[in-house]
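Intended use. Records like the one below are meant for learning the mapping from a protein sequence to its folded structure. Do not use them to infer anything beyond what is encoded.
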Amino acid sequence: MNYSTKPQKWFWILSIIFLLWNLMGLGAWSAQFADSEAMTEGYSQEQLDFFYAYPDWYQWIFGIAVFTGVIACVLLLFKKSKAVVFSLISMITVFICKGYDVYAGALDIFNTSDKVFLVVVPVLAVLLWMFTRSANHRNWIR
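Structure written out for the chain above:
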């Protein structure tokens, strides 16, 4: 296929939306890592017990997921093909975190909005990875 190497306007719009999404994830990670009460406000005791029972490795994997997601988006905005690798790492680590949540019983204790995020976060991680691959395939990033 013969694509123009100049990104379309929607490339920039999606890149910025993905960046904002990942920055929100970074904020959630920092609040959770700092044990912020804002993260646990309104949680039942069962949900708090689940939240505080996360293994240490979970915080690190969660951090890798959000940092590599942010880096992938910044690389996209600078039109760098390394965005594909960073989005792949982010996607894999998101699946590890969300897989652990499901394995540990989150579906039984999460409220509806948390269950939505349990699905939305991995879906958006996959979409970011697919978007970076598409941009790379179209030679919009190098």
